[in-house]
Batch of 2 targets.
Target 1
Amino acid sequence: MVCGMTRQAPDAARRNAGSRSAILAAALDLVAEVGYPKLTVEGIAARAGVGKQTIYRWWPSKGAVLFDALLALGETPDGQPGSLPDTGDLAADLKVVLRATVEELDDPRYDASMRALSTEIMHDPELADRYARRLDGPLRDVKRERLRSAQRAGELRADLDLEVAVDLIWAPIAHRWSQRGPLTAGYTDAVVDAALAGLRRRRG
Amino acid sequence: MVCGMTRQAPDAARRNAGSRSAILAAALDLVAEVGYPKLTVEGIAARAGVGKQTIYRWWPSKGAVLFDALLALGETPDGQPGSLPDTGDLAADLKVVLRATVEELDDPRYDASMRALSTEIMHDPELADRYARRLDGPLRDVKRERLRSAQRAGELRADLDLEVAVDLIWAPIAHRWSQRGPLTAGYTDAVVDAALAGLRRRRG
Amino acid sequence: MVCGMTRQAPDAARRNAGSRSAILAAALDLVAEVGYPKLTVEGIAARAGVGKQTIYRWWPSKGAVLFDALLALGETPDGQPGSLPDTGDLAADLKVVLRATVEELDDPRYDASMRALSTEIMHDPELADRYARRLDGPLRDVKRERLRSAQRAGELRADLDLEVAVDLIWAPIAHRWSQRGPLTAGYTDAVVDAALAGLRRRRG
Amino acid sequence: MVCGMTRQAPDAARRNAGSRSAILAAALDLVAEVGYPKLTVEGIAARAGVGKQTIYRWWPSKGAVLFDALLALGETPDGQPGSLPDTGDLAADLKVVLRATVEELDDPRYDASMRALSTEIMHDPELADRYARRLDGPLRDVKRERLRSAQRAGELRADLDLEVAVDLIWAPIAHRWSQRGPLTAGYTDAVVDAALAGLRRRRG
DNA sequence: GGATAACCGAGACGGTACGTCCGGTCTTACC
DNA sequence: GGTAAGACCGGACGTACCGTCTCGGTTATCC
């Protein structure tokens, strides 16, 4: 099994699976309850009924614990990254996906831990790299694939830089979320429409 | 002059201006040197040659200090918000502005303190509100005004929601910066072009 | 007017008598309420409705304030030191006096401030000296005089060292008080009897 | 072995003996150097090379630390309370003992820490109780025993209250010490003589 | 199936920083 | 010019966690 950010040195085979999942669950609970800044390794250990050393043995920081917790949260269904819906109508598909994303961010467990992870990434380049490769990367692949499909179908410009295109659609939502701006279905719909149609006025 | 996030309770008239600026300068220096997580109130006080109480008297947290420090940094020139260049060619103007923004983020003092502030905002709704009103708001006004001018000149669609339009252009840059992605002039140019032209393929 | 331990530098004539007595009263109240270790100059100033500087201007420490407060407490009646009763029966007179002393120590104002003063004296030789000259000295004179009178009347040995004699009678009470031992009329009576008669068995 | 004033809650078995003795030694050194009022927990921790929490884990206050330090100082020889010399001549024996006591109080380590302890006892009834049971009690037993022996030998009155007798002899010394009066061998000899013979004049 | 090595809970340890309280000095405005 | 008010620098308080460490007590493979 893949493991997120665990240290490799100790003998992973001997690892107590119960402790591991108790720690990840405690971390998610606590971050939702008290917020990331007040999340402490000691608190996680106490809540999980685990010695502090058991955490430090496997993770270098509370951020790494939370990272694995988020990974586990995402992997629960089947372990497959899945793909975005493709009905042939890109605008409609994107609107559905973004509405779902916005709804997901209403779950305080998810919101709090994502917020925490984003925070940690801002100050920890190594964690940022792991995030890019293990969490954001696969998601981004999925998004890019949907756009590429639309491109092949002639819905999108042939000369489009898909990296930029992905950002154009998803960054406004992420940015508004991170700044606690109002995040509604109306807003995400408007973003999709504007991104696809462009800001520029059409002549004639 | 208005002041950023100082508590209003104590008698602001009696305030020692020298201590205030020493504290703000020390905060900026330290956050650039050791990063936000290792920035401490104690450290700021020591560097500024000030008692800890003098900080706690006027600010509730290290985040608030940094907020005021950033405000002071921005106000240095003249206190006027200024406006974006307007040559009549929106795409060109935006490219110039975004290239300048990217360059500004290369200054470690600015980068580190903005990163710190973004972090704090993620977990402190009250600070987020102050940020929106005192720092981001004025900047956003300036951006919206430039777009409105282009709209009036017929460069942009008449039915455009300018809030969405602002996000479409600036959010990708902010998002990539916060995730430590590569932030080049080529990228910002591509964002401007894609946002203005739209992702959708033109028929005929 | 005598003043206990006030600094002499400032112009005492301009002194605000109301502030002075408010400070002394506040000190006595507070020491009885919260105990000496938690008595603070700031607290006294607040209770007395006085600026801190007004205290520091006239007294060097909270101990000195309390010292003056005790002096004022003792001087209230007439300012005269008075003398011990002298009925011609030393034992009876002493028992009356000591019972009165024990009763006085039941007043928490008096008990707490005396306890505080004793404490301060233990660590501050200068204050100890002032205490010996201004508070304990006069009292001791009075005690010694009563014993000298008994000596002249033939009740006490002619070769007696009266300093030792005073200690023999009063030190046990003071010592037991300071160690919070049980302080009863029975005990003080027993001390008087034992001190006068001596511990040694009489022969024949 | 019993221990002085340590809190019982934490697991005493896991206690680091080196830290404990380093703390006690540091406390004795510091109180002799800077005096009790300037003795700080922080200072003790620094001098002992110990974290502050290690002190707060086991003692509730600097006074309690000093108490244990004094206990340890007293227990060094053998842990036995010992007894007072008994040559059959009570007066001579007492004079020897009191001269030794006075000399002991010349050691600034002992003087300063005893002074500190006395101070703390004045304001902390619980500490006073511990003192009475663990330090003063055993000493007092020893003194009472010596007097009882003299009583049995016919040197002292048969009807004597030994508690009062102990105070009559030792309280004057303790009291004079606490008030920083002159404490000489001549004085202690005079106290013994006066206490044994009594103040009252013997009739021809 | 007994040895042995790692994990595990618990928690003491040396530290750092917290946010508060107060000491003693200095400044300002009022009277 | 004395006073009430209170900001200021400094420093100790007692607490919370950090990350390391040591202690017995379970596992759980490997001889």
Target 2
Amino acid sequence: MSLRHAVLGLLAIKPSTGYELTQRFDLSLSHAWQASHSQVYPALAKLETDGLVEVLSEGARRSRTWGITPAGRNELRDWLVESEVDRGQRNESGVRWFLFQLLDPADRREVIEREIEYTERTAAMLGSLAGRTDDPNPLEPSIDLGQRINAVMLEWLHDQLDGLPGDDER
Amino acid sequence: MSLRHAVLGLLAIKPSTGYELTQRFDLSLSHAWQASHSQVYPALAKLETDGLVEVLSEGARRSRTWGITPAGRNELRDWLVESEVDRGQRNESGVRWFLFQLLDPADRREVIEREIEYTERTAAMLGSLAGRTDDPNPLEPSIDLGQRINAVMLEWLHDQLDGLPGDDER
DNA sequence: GCCATCATGTAAAAGGTTACATGATTTT
DNA sequence: AAAATCATGTAACCTTTTACATGATGGC
């Protein structure tokens, strides 16, 4: 279970209310982890009983701002450094590309073109994230990685398109 | 739910018993999808009532070999071509790299080195898969993609290592 | 005063993992 | 004959998603 670690991590970056955490899962972690508020609130309650997070302040509308405790930082650090990475992560795109070969050329073309569009949109999004020279962005490394992977993905997709039986033949 | 589609896909490649399917999930799809036998058997039963798979033959030890029906092929094709890709795939490594910045340089070095080892092992494994020139491998494209992504990953990891505060300073 | 949004929670249903259970065949 | 492996299934538990439910505040 790494929902708790994702929550700890987000709180280590910045204290937040449960509501804000839900938004941050959507904005900055949606490509890697999702959690809706119905998971976040119980998770915070559990982390509190474990002494890993604490309420820093209470605000309007019954809101509570949570922060990570020193014990929470230890737990997070141990997870990141000492624990085994779970490599058996489910990946729907992986399944799709694995089964891709079963499609006839016309369908393959359609799938590839759809994916090229998506990849180009992602590239643009990553580009705008990286382009902010004003602040020294601590996320720069993972954005950079995303851009590099996106680039090879695009290349590969075009190679796959080129490899299709040409529609100029008769 | 794409467990059903993964099962349909594997059966579209080759008819199998439930037991063999479990093994094939482990061998060829473990990087993208896992399913244990306790998931596979009920899934086959469900797919049968839906008319998407059928028993082709019964063998020793009460074993039954399943195949995909024409309706099953339609369902699989529709999923691959017509349905939206679920992009919100959970990715523990993604979370880890996102939170990576929170670690101090010594810990970062440890994590990167561990990851370089893993990536090199993966590269070797992919290389041996791709090196089989004897059969025209229909999985070649996804192996190729895996190799390319692995290569940028390795580059990025070395760049991250180089970017760490040097331990030659005093 | 009404609506949108902020804010927090619980409950039901679906999906997935681990453990339990059993029997048949092959290998040693 | 015992052990390993093939082969299938169910049950309990945990996690995740979707739906239900409610109240507070700020802007119009």
